[in-house]
Amino acid sequence: MKKYIVITGASSGIGAAAANAFAGRGENLILIARRAELLQNLKDEIAQIAPESDVVIKICDLSRSENVLTLWDELKSYELKALINNAGFGDYGAVGERDLSKISQMLQLNIISLTLLSHLFVRDYKRKPSQLINISSAGGYSMVSNAVTYCASKFFVSAFTEGLHHELAQDKDAKMQAKVLAPAATKSEFCDVASGKRGFDYDAAFSQYHSSEQTAEFLLTLYDSDACIGEVDLASFEFKLSEPKFNYIAAAK
User: Fold this and answer.
1) Residues 91-128: b if buried by 16+ CB within 10 A, e if exposed
2) Cross-strand pairs, 83
3) Residue 234 in 3-state DSSP?
4) Which of 11, 14, 52, 172 is deepest in the core (most CB within 10 A)?
5) End-to-end C-alpha distance for the chain, whole angstroms
6) Cβ atoms of 62 and 39 closer than 8 Å
7) Where are the beta strands (DSSP E) in the chain?
8) Which long-range contacts (CB under 8 A, 24 or more apart) does 162-169 make?
9) Per residue in 200-247, pLDDT tens?
10) 69-83, 89-103, 223-237: which has the minimum mean pLDDT?
């Protein structure tokens, strides 16, 4: 039976680059995003470079909780080997001065939908060899000026996934691994969306940044490892693997 890697937020940026990278290994993919045309273009591109990979596309707005449950029902006919929760976006600006509808949508996507998908995946695949990789951020371990709410959402992603990593490690019957990818500045549509301005100048804004393709390679390195965290060190700007960072208090026996 074919096994698939699911990637959310796959229409552009890190998600699209990760899809190409996994397809280069001959993996079968289920690609999820809102923008149908971009997903179809990506599927056509993969068909040219990796014709042996089966690519399924699902058009879904994950910022709506009810869509998460519908999507999972659609995925039950496939055997999954990994879920990469990549869908998410940021917002730049001071607390108290932001568009609350955008903030609400960001929290819904970055936290609630990711958490629901994670719970569903663990429920159905914990006893099978599988990987859950949740995309956090360097901002999920360090607060960044003018992006406090976004960083707080990614702190949740990091803490939730690290906690799950510990839970799975304590369950002798669990075969799933839970991991966090924490990239730093990555050139994509991210800053256009976060700033609300098209054509964001990465060279002017950042002294260093990675391409989406580089970050996708970091993701594959994490996927191939037994580490909990794959992160970009903000001091050296180098990628490294590490164990969980947050304190974890095990339940009393």
Assistant:
1) bbbeeeeeeeebbebbbbbbbbbbbbbbebbbeebbee
2) 6, 132
3) coil
4) 14
5) 41
6) no
7) 3-8, 28-33, 55-59, 79-85, 130-135, 176-182, 186-187, 210-211, 229-232, 239-242
8) 162/228, 162/229, 162/244, 162/245, 162/246, 162/248, 163/246, 163/248, 164/118, 164/122, 164/132, 165/228, 165/244, 166/244, 166/248, 166/250, 168/122, 168/126
9) 888 888 889 999 999 999 999 999 999 999 999 999 999 999 999 999
10) 89-103
Give the CA distances from residue 136 to residues 80, 140, 185, 198, in Å, rounded to whole numbers and listed in that order: 22, 6, 12, 23
Which domains does the chain carry? Answer: 3-242 (3.40.50.720)
| CA distances (Å), origin 151, targets 79, 86, 106 | 33, 15, 11
- Residue bearing tokens 């803490």: 159
Q: What residue type is 44 in one-letter code?
A: D
